[in-house]
Amino acid sequence: MNRHLQIILSLLIVSVLSKAQIPNNSFEFWTITSGYQTPDNWDNLNLITYSSGIYTCIKGSPGYSGASYLYLISKAIPGKGIVPGVAVCGEIDTITYQPKSGFSYTERPQSLSYFIQFMPYDPTDSSSVKILLTKWNQAQLKRDTIAYGESYFNSMAHSWFNYSTYLNYFSSSDPDSAIIVISSSSSLPKEGSYIYVDDLQFNGIVIGIDENRLNSNYVSISPNPSSEFITIKLNSETAFPVEVIIYDCFGDIISKNSFFSQSNVLNISNWSKGIYTVQVRNEKNILNKKLLIN
To answer: Domain 216-293 - what CATH class?
Structure first.
């Protein structure tokens, strides 16, 4: 066989294997269940809404590159309130709407890329894509977090575009499982918020735990501690836009903003006293800093 042709075939095989790491990554395969269609290998909440003739997980067509895509939408369900459109590559808990399990996965990717469209009902709601890599700890009989990544979308995009969610690594171990969660809404869903997703793919390789972390000098927070206002300053080499997410001590999101300038002021006068985590993300990197509110 021609050497050049061998190289091309090898690259094609690698590409196919990479995409195949995520079950039904392009949402081309669907099964009819109780009168509605479910994407193979992806659990969702139609099981608790179909009796009302309402579906939060829908087969969209055509897809970005194929025949179909994943369409999730938040809906008002009689007796249940607003139910978000949630899809889990694995199994979902229909009571808590949280993932119960994922799929077997042993790589250490740098990011998850996908094509996406979205429109939350208003800026107080947000669609999201989250990835969790874990490994079973036999000694402690629990799962250890290897890496985590998340992206939130609270504006609108009515045409397909490519986006990447980068993972933040907490361990140098290889995972044994992955969970991907896609949601049309936040924990306080608004009816009508939706998200389209197609062609998910893991990319890159991370060897250590610091490759995706920004240098601590990248951002400064002042004053810290504070009780009224804080100024978040980014250095002159910043690649905008930058996403800044602030979590409380319970891991709940308190604030989420996209910054387009080096100096940004936030009003924190209504926040409770305590320790918060300020997470700064650009296109490829992540940095966590602590904020004390007194």
So the answer is: mainly beta
